[in-house]
Each structure stands twice: as C-alpha cells, then as structure tokens.
C-alpha cells in the first residue's frame, strides 16, 4: 500500500470571508457607520496584535467581486482560538453590516516528501532548514500585498489517483513542483494548510505577492507540473489585497 | 453477483446543524437572549439526560466556519424519537435565533466483513466482542472533545466499482482499513451509521478526539487505504468541539 | 439499436415537499395557528378522500432533517388534477407557514421487460397478474408506515451505458433485480413512476415499510444488483412517516 | 477536423419562468389581486397578439412543482424584442407577486445534416420542405396543450465526443433520431433552438402534445437513440400546460 | 514536462453583473427612481470616460434572462482600480435597487503560442503585430453591439489533458483555432483575459458583434476545433447588448 508522508502541524487557520451589505451601509445613519468602523477597526487591530492569544498572526484583506468583500485570516495555536475570533467578530457593530458567505478551516502543515530526516528528528537538520520549516508552520503575513486563496485536493481518478501511487513517485513530483516554486522566490510567499477532516478540500493555499500577475504566473506555470496537471483538483479562487485595520473606514466609505 | 455483507443496526442518528443569526442575537433585548439561553440549555440538558426516551445519547458541539455554528447530535431507538427531538428544539426560544442549514439522518450499523459468525449468532462470539459490537450500535459520546463529521459513499465508477467486486476482496480491504484504524486506538473514537435509503450519501462518519490533529492524521492516513483511495466518495466536512449545555450562554455571548 | 421496452402508465404523481417556518409558527397567535391547522387538516382530509377527482390517492408524511418537514403525495388521473391540488394547498392558511423546497412530478409506469405478453394484450395474462399490474399503476398508500423517496436515472456512462445495451441483457438484469425485491415481499411496498420528460431524473421511487431498517436493507442489497451498481444514478433521499390528517395539529405543536 | 453543419436561424426565444409568491397573493387585498390579474392578462394578451413587434408568437403555461408556477414563452425577430418583453412584464402589478427562478435564451435553428441542398439554396428544394423549414424557424405555439421544456448539450466525453466525430457519422445518427421522431407525427410538436453562446446548454427543446404520456414516451424512446444515449447531456425538465391569458385569474385563484 | 507558453498581461478586468430588484423599482416614488437614474448614469459616464484612472475602458450592457439585468465591464491598469470602481457603484442610489449575483475577475493576456519572438522582444516584430498585441491587452469596447461572456478552462481529463501535452501540439491546435477565428474577422471582436489564480475558471472570454447569430456561429464552429471539442470546459454564458449610460433611464423604465 502507498505510504502517507510524515507530517508536522503548526497553527490552525481560519479564512473568514465577509460580504458587506452595502444597501444597509448606505442607508445607515453616520453615527452607526462610525461605530461599526470603530468596533471593526478595534477588533482587527487587537487580532493583528494577537492580543487574544499567546501567538499567531491575523490580517484583513479587501476581496474583489461578488464572492466576498472582506477576508479576515487568523493563524492561532488552537481551534478554540479560531472559534473565539470568529464569534468575537460577530459581537462588533461591523458584523451587523456583513454576512459570512464562506470560510475555510485548516492547519498549517509540512510534509516529509523531500526532507524525511527532519520528521525523524528536527534537530538533525541545520538551523536554516529548521527556521524554514518553522516559518511554514508559524507563518508571517506580509504587509500591503495581494492575496490569492484557493482550496485544493489531490485527484483520486479512475486512472490518475494520487493516493494510489508510490511514495517515491509522489516525492519526485513534489520535488519538481518545488523547483517551479523556487523560480518565484522573492516574488511569491505561500502558506499551505491541511484541511483533511476539517473542511471540504484537502488543503487551503494562500499566496501573497506585491504583483498580482506573479500570482497568475505561478499558478499557471504550476498547472503544467504533473502534480497539478494530472493530480490537482481546485476549488474556488479569491483575490484581494491586504490593508491595515486603520484603513477599514476608507475601504467602506469608498 | 457480489454479495451484500450481513449487517446489524442500533440507534437511529440525527446530526442537526444550526446557524446562529448573530445579527438578531446582537440586537435582541437582554431578557430575550436570557430566555433563549435558558430554554436552549434546558432542551439540551433534557436530551443529554435522555429524558425523552428509554435510551440513547445526545450532545451539542460548537462548529467552526460558515457552514454552521452548532451541531446537536441525537442517538435514539426510533426515527420518531429523532423527529420529536428535532421539533422540540423548534419550540424553544433559542430556535428563533437559528436556522437549520443542513442535517444528516442515519442508523448505527455494523457489517459482517470481518466477523461473520457474530451475524449468524451474536452469542457465538466472546463477551468482549459482543460488548464491542454493542458499543458500535449504542455509542457513548465522549466529553469535551473535538468532533469531525462527514458523509461518504462507496464509489461506483466505471472502472473502480465497490459494489461490483467480490465479498472476499472487499472484506480484505476493510480489514486493512481496520488496521489503520487500530493505530489510532485511544486517540480516536469513531461512529459509523448507514444512511442508505435515508439521506444523500451511504454513511455518516463521526470522529471524536481530544486533539484535532489526530482527526487530520487518521483521515489522511486512511485516504491511502485502497478502500478510500479507490472507493471513497466524501461529502462536506464539519469540525467542532463538544461543550456542556450549561456553557451555551458562554458560547453565545462570545 | 437497443429497443425501448413497452410501457403502460397509470396515475400521475406529485411529491409535494413543504418546509415549516417554525419561527413564524412559534410567533403566531393561537387563533392563527388553529386556523392553519383546521384548514390544513381539511385540505389533507379532502384529498385523502379524493373529493377533488374521480379516483386517486393522497397522503401526508412527516419528514426528518433540514430538507423538508412535510411531504404530501398525490396520485391522480391527470396532471391537471395535480396542478389543482398543488394550488389548493396554497389557498390554505397552513401554506402561509410553509415553503416548498422541492417536489417531484412523475407518472406510475410498468415496463415490459419480464411480461411482454401483457403489453401486447393485457387480457392475455391471468387475472392475478392483471391485478398486480393494476396495483402498480393505481397504487394504494399504506397506513402509518415509514416512507423513503428518491429519484433515479439509468447511467449513460462512457463504458457502462444502460441505453446502449440489448433488450435481453437489460431484461435479465431487471429480472435479477426483481428477485432481490421478492425477498422483501411483505416487508416493503414500492411505487415506481417515470419522470422522463417531466422532471430531472428518469424515475421516482417511493418505498413504504413499517420498519425503516427494511428500507435501508433493501436499498443496500439492491445496490449490489448489477442494474444498480453499474447503471443506477441516485438523487437525494428523503425519509419520513405517514400520519393521519387529524394528527397535523399534534405534529405542528410538537 | 470534423465539420460543423450549415445552419439557419429564425426567431429568438425567451423561456421566462415565474414563481408566484402565494403568501403575498393570499394576503393581498382583493383590489390588488384584481389589478395584478388585469395587468397580467393584458400583458399576456398583447404579447400573444404580438402587438409589440412585427412578427413572433407568445404563450403562457402553468408549470407543475416547485421549480416554477408560470412559463411565458416569447418568439421574436430580435433579442431586443425579448429584452423589452421581459422588462414589460416587470412593469405589471402581476410581477410584484412573482420572482424569476430561471429562464432560457436561444434562437430557433435548423441544421443541414439531412438536407444540405436547402442550406446552399433554399429555393432549390420543393415548397413543402421550404414550408417545413420555415415552420421550424418561425413556429406556431399549439393551443391548450401540455408543454415540456429542457435544455441539452452534446457530450464531449473522453471517449464519446460528438464534436470529434465525422459529419457523415453524425448525419446518420441524426437521421435515425429523426425516424424516431416521425413515429410521433401528429402526437408531438417540437421546437429546437440553439443557445450556443447565449445560455448554459447548447440547445433548448420545447415539446407540445395534447397527452403528456406522449411526451414521456418520445423522450424515453429517443433516449435509446445513439445520438441521445451516447451523446446527450440533459438539464432540468419542466412540465406544464398552456392556458389562454383570460384564464390567468382562474389559475391564480385556484 | 510540458512547457507553459510565455505570456504578457495588460489591463485587469472586472465583469460586474447586477440584478435589478424590479419590485422595489416599481414601488419606489418617482424622485427616488430619478435619483437612482441620475447617480447611476453619472457613475457609468464617469467610468466610460475613465475619469477615475489614467487609462482603461468601461461599458454597460443590458443582459437577458434571470442570471442578471445589467453587466458593467471595467478594464483598468490595476486590481485596485477595479476594487474602487466596484465600491463606487455601491455608493450610488442605483445600487440600492440592485444585487450582484455574479462577477468575474481577470487580466487581459496574450500567449506566445504563435509568435514566440514577440515575447522575447516586442520590438523584434513589425508595428502592425505590435499594435495588434497592444489591442488585445488594452482593448476598446465596441459601441452599441451585442456581447457574450463566458468563463472557460482547459480540460485536465484522465485521457485528454491539455496541460500534459507538448507545447508544439498545443501551438498547432491554437493555430487551427485562430484560423476559425479569422473567418469571423470584421464580424466578431474578442477579448481574452486570464483568471488563473483570480477566479474559478482559467479564462474569461468576451465576444462582441452587431449580430448575435455571429456569436452563436463562432462559438458553435469553434466547438468543433480540437482545442475546444477535446479540451474546452465552459462555464455559464451571458448575452446582452451595450447601451450608452444616457439610456439607463430608458432601460429601467421599460
């Protein structure tokens, strides 16, 4: 039987998408809009400062198109932290102007396809690799950059079935895939989080870049990698841009 | 023709998901929220105590993300018990603050792939196995643990068709699958219930663990089992955590 | 070219699913609820008595889970009868507390796979068979039993295509399927109705039993029949229980 | 490369489905219902009389089940005519009691699979065939008959791909299909309209008959034609019955 | 491994679909409708004049059927421009009479299948080709013409997988496809924009013509091209017609 790769997990992740009820916003008296902005900004600022937990990271993004208007991403040590953050938003006056059209629950994950020795003993690898792995499990969110989020699974087709091929063959495909990724070093930051058992696809992918065409380019290039072309199943894609909590009012007012 | 395995059935199961109308909750006067909490808590407590029937088990869970906020699970001897429990919830003031985005109807089931002798005569097997089977049919719900629920069917693909392969081959795959499960003994409790003829997939799977990464790990490991990789079709996944009815107010107030 | 089987048709069928707006129900003054119960009961009673047409049959069922709360089934000689029954419900005060989440339109049908002589000349077969056929076309609805409804089509896959195989081979598979059915004689009553040209699947199947595990068992057993395993495509499943119109109030009040 | 058949186009078609808000209807004061009936009737009458354009045809149908209550079909020389008809409905008081759950946009089309000479020069064929073709492009809508509407596409499967087979082979299959159709001459009238580039499937099919079992029979028989069994992909099916605009009030009042 | 083609990108694109709430429109007092028309017209006129950015193009279209009533298309140099345009609409009184049922985010793209030399050095090709490429990246929107929009992806089937075939073979198919397109020179204008990483399909296609049957014809003809027949996966299709902002009132008033 094909073997599962060893994995390690870090922070749990909530992608919390929100749609603004622009009709309600337009019709609300100014003091209600001001209160919504004040409470929303405060909620976002506190979570970006991780005032609710020992560690983690949070950020808010504007989102293009009808699928959502805002995306709030939380990385936290426990699912309970995420549940509290989700409900805390609902207690703000801002929440009264939003609905939650979708969301995604996952946990940051690294897999031992390329560096099995790390998974046997993390201290057996050099500090640089340890830091790299740590950065994957407890990622920072870049400032003022574009974001793309999409969930994905590995195909279990009748002919092409990721879960039915040998570890070595999978490792080789993952290696080639990583090569494509390296061409985007410095242009793209990527967070991979497993949603197996938690949400409808197997992983959530979050890409950051200061140029959205880099995002288009890396996803397109990677689609030609065997691991994607034959084995990738993609869900919906969302694109947006990070803004500081202090700009929430500017975003909402246009 | 391939033969169906012998089966035995126990309690019927309702997974009743609820979404909280947080806008209504935020805007409601305190006495209405207090009444909703009081009636909701009382309803949940009575059902956890199985005051409505001779036997069974019930529990309430918080759920992460947009798909639901609460999951109430009822195990009861009859479908009528489940219908009454579902409608009883609707008579509480809490129901006025919720909608029911989804649900799942099933009956706990054991299959005779590995122990056919039990299905010929339950008394022919030792007491330990009898107790094990009983525990599958009339399961207890663990306290204060994380839960994952998902429905699944066996694939009837043009090439890989579970229902078109021999009993023995299926039994062997189920055996291998059970081996994977045994590696999680003490970490994961699992309830399997058939929804054939009752709901949209063939089975509902409910996993419990005190560590959500165990849930991720077992589902991921099992995906490499032939029975899943080639023959599993999965629906939506829900993740949450059990809380005692007395904590309903704390959950709703944030 | 493969040949279509001869068919005969009987009554047209409407499966009319209704979801109760429990919030509106909870909040309505008693006299409004009483009027809704009175008008709803009267509507159901008149249709069970077939006061609206020369012949037919009607029944109401409670339904478990979020997909519906009530299922009203009408068998009538014409589509116009069904249209009138559907609109007559909308004129009751009960309708104001319900929405119609789904429905199914079909016509009872028998196919000449096993008894072609009947379709050449119904009088050529013995009275017992004639009565059997008649019962399929103008079915009675059993009292106080559980019901399962699901729509289905025959697969037209690239490899396994029901409509591309010979009449004889199809007839043989239907015969084997009927054998499985006979093992449930006395336990399960089944109504088959064609929705080809009328609704989204090709047939609607309605099963009745006094024990819901018989429903689970027959659908599971039949799934191993080649006709289902290779050629069946199933839609959503609904499960519920018949109740007399006089119990409508008891159902709604909990 | 396989060749596209020559085609000719006639009137553009809008299938405009409407769901009645029966709760609003039940609760509306009589004068509002009367006004809605009057304006709705007048709108339908004017469009049946084609008072809005030089030529065309329109009709209204009751529809069974939850998918819609009314279907208004317009045939007109331009898409602009259809847009005006759609918006004109919205200006009636009747529209206030309806929503538009679905619709279909297409253009009547004939294809040169069987009579290529007509497409080279319409005058090269006899007057009977010219009239037949004209009737396909500018169809009449039969009085007081049942209607079935469904959209369809030709399959582009990995193995069976309509668009990848030779013109001659396709022409042969279309010919066989036409033979099946001829068996229903006098029983079924059929309108075929292309929605390629306009709507989600490739064609919309509208069938008329004074007996709905003829509709079931022709669609079932044709499903065994290779062109359907291997190459047909069908959308949702809708069934209803034409009524004269003057009966709108009777329809709405039950 | 198959190689991705070189690409170049131009303006970002937002297809912003809007559904008119005709009930609210019908019931609104005249001064509110007048204000909505005035603000909507001004918003559209300013964006058609590209008063909000250095360069770009915008247009408004009426859309047939239930999927939308209006389509506003914006081409702009940055995603931020699109986000501002989307939110600016929400600040108009017109927005209060609309919802946003769907949308599409993409970036105009040219691919180096046929002219790789351009992608090495744009100045290495003649001015005519440079202008052609420029026109693809910074397109003009034709006046008063019909529009068809649909998203599409290249198939990654188990047998036919676009991303698994050689660059040369893909280039050849694209060349044949372009030949089909050339037959519609002067009849059809086409804008191709990549949505890889931004939205749910891989490209958005926008076709313009003064005759909607040309749109039907080109999409049908191209469906027989191998690149579409074997490798095209299409989403929903929308059809409409451009109108000048000054005609917004006429459109809304019928």
Oligomer: homopentamer
Sketch the major β-sheet of chain A: 8 strands, antiparallel, barrel
Count of beta strands of chain A = 10
SSE string of chain A, helix = H, strand = E? EHHEEHEEHHEHEEHHEEH
Coarse structural class of chain A: alpha+beta
Proportion of helical residues of chain A = 25-40%
| Sheet with the most strands: spatial strand order of chain A | 1-3-2-10-6-8-7-5
Query: Largest interface, with Cβ-Cβ < 8 Å?
Result: A-B, 44 and 43 residues
Principal-axes geometry of chain A comes out as globular
- Measured distance between first and last alpha carbons of chain A: 56 Å
Task: Please provide a brief summary of the model.
The structure is a homopentamer of 254-residue chains. Chain A has helices spanning 22-27, 30-48, 79-90, 116-120, 127-137, 167-182, 212-223, 226-229, 248-253, and strands at residues 7-20, 57-63, 70-76, 98-99, 103-111, 146-154, 189-194, 203-209, 232-234, 238-243.
SSE blueprint and pairings:
5 copies of one chain form a homopentamer.
Chain A: E1 7-20, H1 22-27, H2 30-48, E2 57-63, E3 70-76, H3 79-90, E4 98-99, E5 103-111, H4 116-120, H5 127-137, E6 146-154, H6 167-182, E7 189-194, E8 203-209, H7 212-223, H8 226-229, E9 232-234, E10 238-243, H9 248-253
Antiparallel strand pairs in A: 1-3, 1-4, 1-5, 2-3, 2-10, 5-7, 6-8, 6-9, 6-10, 7-8
């Amino acid at each position: 039987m094909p073997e599962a790769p060893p994995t390690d997990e870090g922070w749990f992740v909530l992608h919390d998408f929100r749609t603004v009820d622009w009709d309600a916003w337009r019709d609300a008296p100014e003091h209600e809009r001001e209160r919504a902005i004040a409470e929303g900004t405060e909620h976002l600022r506190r979570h970006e400062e991780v005032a609710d937990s020992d560690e983690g990271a949070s950020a808010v993004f504007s989102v293009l198109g009808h699928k959502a208007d805002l995306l709030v991403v939380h990385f936290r040590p426990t699912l309970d932290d995420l549940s509290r953050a989700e409900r805390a938003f609902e207690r703000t006056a801002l929440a009264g102007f939003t609905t939650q059209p979708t969301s995604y629950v996952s946990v940051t994950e690294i897999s031992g396809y390329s560096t099995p020795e790390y998974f046997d003993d993390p201290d057996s690898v050099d500090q640089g690799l340890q830091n790299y792995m740590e950065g994957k499990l407890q990622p920072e969110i870049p400032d003022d950059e574009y974001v793309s989020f999409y969930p994905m699974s590995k195909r279990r087709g009748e002919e092409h079935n990721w879960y039915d091929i040998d570890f070595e063959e999978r490792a080789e495909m993952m290696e080639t895939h990583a090569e494509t990724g390296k061409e985007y070093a410095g242009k793209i930051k990527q967070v991979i989080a497993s949603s197996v058992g938690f949400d409808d696809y197997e992983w959530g992918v979050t890409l950051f870049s200061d140029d959205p065409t880099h995002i288009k380019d890396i996803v397109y290039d990677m689609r030609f990698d065997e691991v994607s072309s034959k084995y990738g199943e993609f869900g919906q894609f969302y694109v947006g841009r990070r803004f500081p909590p202090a700009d929430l009012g500017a975003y909402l007012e246009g």
